Amino acid sequence: MNPLRILPFLAISCIFTSLFLSLGPNPVLASSNALSLKPRPILEDQAWNQESREGVDKKIEIFDEIREEEKRESEEEERERVRLYCESWRFAVETNNLQSWKVVPIECGGFVKKYMSERGYRSDLEMVAEVAGAFARNVELGQDGMDAWIFDIDETLLSNLVYYEENGFGLELFNGNKFDEWVDLAEAPAISPFLKLYEEVLEMGFKVFLLTGRSESQRSTTIHNLQNSGFQNWDRLIMRGAADQGKSAVFYKSEKRMEMEKEGFRILGNSGDQWSDLLGSSMAIRSFKLPNPMYYIP
Amino acid sequence: MNPLRILPFLAISCIFTSLFLSLGPNPVLASSNALSLKPRPILEDQAWNQESREGVDKKIEIFDEIREEEKRESEEEERERVRLYCESWRFAVETNNLQSWKVVPIECGGFVKKYMSERGYRSDLEMVAEVAGAFARNVELGQDGMDAWIFDIDETLLSNLVYYEENGFGLELFNGNKFDEWVDLAEAPAISPFLKLYEEVLEMGFKVFLLTGRSESQRSTTIHNLQNSGFQNWDRLIMRGAADQGKSAVFYKSEKRMEMEKEGFRILGNSGDQWSDLLGSSMAIRSFKLPNPMYYIP
């Protein structure tokens, strides 16, 4: 026989076989007794049990997948709930609706860390500095050199983020001694958008007052830190003296502003990360609140 | 010939054919002259050109993919930049750093719409109402019925979101006539967390003053709207009279608060969506700023 004669037969068979195989794994073909025509009840029972077992396994698998999916969804919902809560908490903090809070709520630890460490905090600071700069450029200054701008120091000109990174970003209760140790290092870097604003308002002819809750005992460290971070030519650095200890920040700072006004200064701008830097008496024409979701000073 | 004899031969051929086919589309087999053993230089050159062309096409495809990826990345970066900007813009608005803005920045249209329409606005309102309620419960009231709570109306007790949904969520310049038409419909729904607070402070024994920028000509419509939305038993509804037209909101509202104080009322709480509801003279012991990124009233 000419072997080429088999060729068309072979080709057609192959097409069918390939098509058959292409339908995917077939349980009948896959089972060991598929090609046997002789009845083998025991093995068939096993096969049936096997199939039934596979069916149960498949159902368990699907059930697990559904449970997994539900878990993912509820975790996603929980994350969204926490995010919304923390956004609203931050709104309440920054608008001064909340007041008198001691620590960041435990569920917002991650939220505050993310905000402070990633681009949110930086972006907010830049916007506040920009808005404050626009006001400074547009306000009319007198010719007598009595127009003043007040800057708070901590979280306004100098950043203590390095300290707060190591102390839970506000999750931990404030520890005065530990914080003073950090201040004494005089290593706090400048908040650059506010170093820029500081230099701009000086350039425009404002008198610059630094009004801080830091105590007189920290004067030389503070001057050292400020100068090392690029701040120069302020008019006065006002710190808590012996008589100011124990006063609330809002009261102490209001008193100091009142004294400035009595000397004839016009307080056009004020900038601080706490409402207690800005509210009270002798308020500035425009006050600029910097963000700070890490701590609250009354 | 017994046709079954072909079977082993057929099976082996089929296995090889299937294996061969399973290697995927083969360019040699696919080309029309693959099975011809006769050299056909012109066609082979075409095949070579074809392959080379395919190489170029592949490179173009990879290049397009890289460009597509870069585009996606830069779009993603752009979205992130806009989101950061709008978050910071909102911070500047809600802390009153910005002041005097007329419309939502065009790039923040989507941001404000999303905030107002999804869960953010609702969540913020609930938090403010909760914080205000906690203060109300903890402050000590006199026995003389002279403790007062002030509520603003628009975006504080009543929501004009339906109107702003149809007018760009603050992207469009404020149109007084169009807004008055909406007010005259008296269809503004209650802001439910503040309806709850309203009822709570009444229950506690506060006198409730409604202090609104709406004009006296809208009194009956406003009463109708308030009552239909569930507000009852307020002490006074104070609206702009003829003499108050043209005054800034902060001045008009300060004057009205001063009058309350002169009558002997103690203003413990105040709540409004504008800083001009809250700042000025005769300020409340505690002021509660509700969110509003849609408009600014000086």
UniProtKB/TrEMBL annotation, chains A, B:
Q: Which parts pass through the membrane?
A: none
Q: Name one GO molecular function term.
A: acid phosphatase activity
Tell me which InterPro entries the record gives.
Acid_phosphat_B-like, Acid_phosphatase_pln, HAD-like_sf, HAD_sf
Q: Name one Pfam family in it.
A: Acid_phosphat_B
User: Which residues fall in a coiled-coil region?
Assistant: 60-87
Q: Which UniProt keywords apply?
A: Coiled coil, Signal
Q: Which CDD domains match?
A: HAD_VSP
Tell me the leader sequence span.
1-30
Q: NCBIfam families annotated for this entry? A: plant-AP
PANTHER family, alphabetized = ACID PHOSPHATASE-LIKE PROTEIN
Q: What is this protein called?
A: Acid phosphatase
Organism whose genome encodes this protein = Amborella trichopoda
